[in-house]
Automatic annotation (TrEMBL):
InterPro entries membership: DUF4369 (IPR025380)
Name of this chain's protein: DUF4369 domain-containing protein
Ranges of residues in domain DUF4369: 30-128
Native source organism of the sequence: Flavobacterium rhizosphaerae
Domain of life: Bacteria
PROSITE patterns xref list: PROKAR_LIPOPROTEIN (PS51257)
Length: 246
């Protein structure tokens, strides 16, 4: 029995150390992570309100590259993690992530703050990364068309490339609509709609209205769900005004 006591005591200590810290009262979002290679600097967690970045929290890094923050979030929303490197500047100083209630973990590096980031704990983030992966195919193809257009002055070739560009754009819009409808129970659905479809021309209203009608009540009441509904109502009103004038 005497031999077992030290072992039992050690197990109790391990169990205590492994216990998750209770979140501060009124906070439903825990963000933690590591910026490997960072020794000094400041991290800022921000979001956009009325086209302006608003700082939600700031974390000073001094020797330890680990960080954490407790926040309150009403509904899933896109947040930004900014890095102020102190004495050195870099264009690679921010990454965006889909925040939602719960525990979100961000692992990244100083030499690849955005490109090497791995974000876990958010279902909306996981779905958004899937969307971006497929969207990149359209982006790459579009860059190829732009390059080919710059390399020729043949009117027929330019006309053909222009038609390919229009066709590619339509496929991208339809992919976005299908993604949003298929993920109507997640806030990422209306988010991609309001961020990707406003420049879709006349068809944009039809696309966004379809997404609006597919949203679940929970998503419809979220920040992006309400934003999408407001935008669709505004477009419908503008169309009615134009029709009455004509």
């Amino acid at each position: 029995m005497k031999k077992l006591l030290p072992i039992l005591f050690a197990l109790v200590l391990c169990a205590c150390n492994d216990e998750k810290k209770d979140a501060p009262q009124g906070k439903n979002l825990h963000i933690s992570g590591t910026v490997k290679g960072l020794r000094k600097g400041t991290l800022y967690i921000k979001k956009i309100e009325d086209t302006t970045f608003v700082t939600l929290d700031s974390i000073v890094i001094d020797g330890n590259p680990d960080f954490e923050s407790y926040l309150n979030i009403e509904s899933p929303e896109m947040y930004y993690l900014f890095l102020n490197r102190g004495e050195t500047n870099s264009m690679d100083d921010k990454l965006l992530f889909f925040a939602e209630p719960g525990d979100i973990h961000i692992d990244t590096r100083l030499d690849g703050f955005f490109a090497k980031a791995k974000i876990t704990g958010s279902e909306n983030q996981k779905l958004y990364e899937q969307y971006l992966k497929l969207k990149s195919r359209y982006t790459d193809k579009n860059l190829d068309l732009i390059k080919l257009s710059a390399e020729t002055s043949d009117p027929k070739k330019l006309d053909s490339l222009d038609k390919q560009h229009v066709s590619l754009l339509k496929r991208h819009y339809l992919y976005t609509v299908n993604f949003a409808v298929n993920n109507a129970s997640h806030e990422v659905g209306p988010y991609v709609a309001v961020s990707e479809l406003p420049d879709a021309g006349v068809a944009g209203l039809q696309y966004m209205d379809t997404i609006c009608k597919s949203m679940t009540p929970k998503v419809a009441n979220s920040a992006y769900g309400q934003l999408l509904k407001k935008y669709v109502d505004q477009l419908k009103e503008e169309q009615q005004e134009k029709a009455s004038i004509n």
